[in-house]
Amino acid sequence: MRLWHISTICLALFCLDNSQAEPKPEHRSNRQLAVTLCNDYRVSNRLPCFVSRKECPRGFEIIEHFSDSTGPSFSACRDMRHERPSGLGRSSNNSVKADKRQLLKQFSRLVSKVDKHRSGPSSYLPKASRDKLALFFSGIDLTSIELIHSKALANGCFTDCRQMFCASKDQVDAWTNPQNPVLSLQLLHQLAHAERCEIQGGRERFVQAWVRQIPEEILTALEAGNPIDIDKIHFAMFMESHAETRAESICRRVGCLRD
Prior knowledge:
By secondary structure, this protein is an alpha+beta fold. Helices cover 46% and strands 14% of the residues. It contains nine helices and nine strands. It has a four-stranded mixed sheet with strand order 4-5-7-6, sandwiched between helices. It has a three-stranded antiparallel sheet with strand order 1-3-2, covered by helices on one side. A two-stranded antiparallel ribbon has the order 8-9. Helix 6 crosses helix 7. The longest helix is centred in the middle third of the chain and has 23 residues. It is globular, with a radius of gyration of 21 Å.
């Protein structure tokens, strides 16, 4: 009986330890942030990545250096050997940095144009929805999520961290109706993106890790005042599959409209 009692206590402690939610970005160490980025890079690119306290070795280049959080600084290093002929020395990462800057610039242009064609002020999730979802999205502040109808979109929704832009005003109104709010699979999908942005460490890191390409034709169409097709914005496949799986899991537990 005594042995059973001790085992039960140990099992309870194990369960308690493993039920802890993932730390918020501000509580994550530099190493944890680097490990998360590397894990995401491996899944989305199917290429090696590892965490180093020193410089990245020959044939590897830095994705990002983490030094602003707790503990020693760490770098996430990606394998670049497949991108250069053998025998060449280590290349400068200036071109990588330039590509990242260009991507961030394009994304900012995209958001600016979409926001310019919003219809009315931002809406927010009502308390009933926040209460239902608080347990599942404990890593984000649900009161800060903005839902915006934009005439710049021809279909669907996309999320810029805490801002969700959607083509359908009826959809936004249904999600934010204070008397009878609708929880839908698409809303949960977009909230999963907002959560990933927080875990990733903010908008800049989120965009660099997950946005793969913004075709110039999209930006040209926006500048001409033409609605754009969300499906033409290229995101990493893992980003979409992760959000889809997360949304499905939550939907089964709280119940949602499969729109």
